[in-house]
């Protein structure tokens, strides 16, 4: 019996190298539909192989589990009925061939609906890409061939603001956990207003005199209510004692223009932290 390990190893090397070339890039990474119901998505093929592209939509949003971990929620039909864009959202073109080193402009159009209540409506855009040509084909001496066709899905958020929009946060109990010199702050939150809360949160560790000893920022996308953890690395050799961790939420992000975000005054919540 022949040893096929070298061929198998080479086969998987081909898979790895191909997967690095097969993806397309999207810009922007979050799409906002303007007041005329129009949005724009740019799809770029940086590789050397023509790509077959398909643009579709599915309703979903970032959620969280009971431990405050980020999860994606799909299949929430009640929220989709209230906040989704449904078949009002169309893409032009929806399918196309994207040549190497080329870019395609995809126009997104939302059909107007005068019955909509004021608020921010949302969905997810799924861009599926796969090589137009045969991806991988290996033939052995017995004449058996193997063909692998890769498809890559990239999913980004899309929003449409209708009428007067507002957002803010209310907080409940705040839990803390410390492990490996990292404090994990887990606040209960509720989004108020008629729009998701898109922005950033800054976690600041302060001593009892108000001096900031450590600080860390991360983006947030909060839609309804639940728990969402925030992590902060503690300084080395932090003395035992009591400290305050302040979470400051702001409707600003480096990756989204402030004009697209629903603005709100900064919101803060503080929790006491005991270091043994």
Describe the structure.
The chain is mainly β and 276 residues long. The chain has two domains: 22-133 and 150-162, Sandwich (Immunoglobulin-like), CATH 2.60.40; 167-275, Immunoglobulin-like. Helix content is 9%, strand content 56%. The chain contains two helices and 21 strands. The protein has helices at 5-22, 77-83; strands at 25-27, 30-33, 38-45, 51-58, 60-64, 70-74, 89-92, 95-98, 102-110, 119-131, 136-139, 145-148, 152-162, 167-179, 182-193, 197-206, 212-222, 225-227, 230-233, 241-250, 267-275. The strands form six sheets. The chain has a five-stranded mixed β-sheet, covered by helices on one side. Strands 1-3-9-7 form a four-stranded antiparallel β-sheet, with no helix packed on it. Strands 14, 15, 18 and 19 form a four-stranded antiparallel β-sheet that branches. The longest helix is centred in the first third of the chain and has 18 residues, at 5-22. It is globular and about 65 Å long. The termini are far apart. Residues 1-22 have low confidence and may be disordered. Residues 1-22 form the signal peptide. This is P pilus assembly protein, chaperone PapD. Keywords: Signal.
């Amino acid at each position: 019996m022949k040893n096929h390990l070298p061929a198998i190893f080479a086969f998987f090397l081909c898979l790895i190298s191909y997967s690095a070339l097969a993806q397309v890039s999207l810009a922007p990474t979050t799409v906002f539909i303007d007041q005329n119901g129009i949005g724009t998505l740019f799809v770029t093929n940086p590789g050397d192989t023509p790509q077959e592209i398909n643009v579709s939509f599915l309703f979903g949003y970032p959620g969280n589990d009971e431990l405050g971990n980020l999860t994606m929620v799909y299949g929430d039909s009640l929220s989709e009925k209230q906040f989704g864009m449904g078949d009002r959202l169309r893409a032009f073109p929806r399918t196309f061939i994207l040549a190497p080193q080329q870019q395609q402009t995809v126009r997104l159009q939302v059909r107007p609906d005068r019955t909509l209540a004021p608020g921010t409506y949302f969905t997810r855009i799924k861009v599926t890409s796969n090589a137009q040509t045969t991806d991988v084909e290996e033939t052995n001496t017995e004449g058996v061939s193997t063909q692998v066709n890769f498809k890559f899905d990239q999913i980004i958020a899309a929003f449409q603001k209708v009428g007067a929009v507002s957002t803010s946060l209310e907080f409940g109990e705040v839990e803390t956990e410390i492990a490996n010199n990292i404090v994990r702050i887990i606040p209960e939150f509720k989004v108020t207003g008629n729009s998701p809360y898109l922005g950033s949160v800054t976690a600041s560790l302060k001593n009892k005199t108000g001096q900031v000893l450590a600080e860390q920022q991360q983006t947030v996308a909060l839609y309804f209510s639940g728990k969402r953890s925030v992590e902060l690395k503690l300084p080395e050799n932090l003395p035992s004692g009591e400290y305050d961790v302040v979470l400051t939420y702001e409707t600003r992000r480096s990756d989204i223009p402030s004009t697209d975000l629903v603005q709100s005054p900064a919101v803060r919540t503080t929790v006491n932290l005991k270091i043994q």
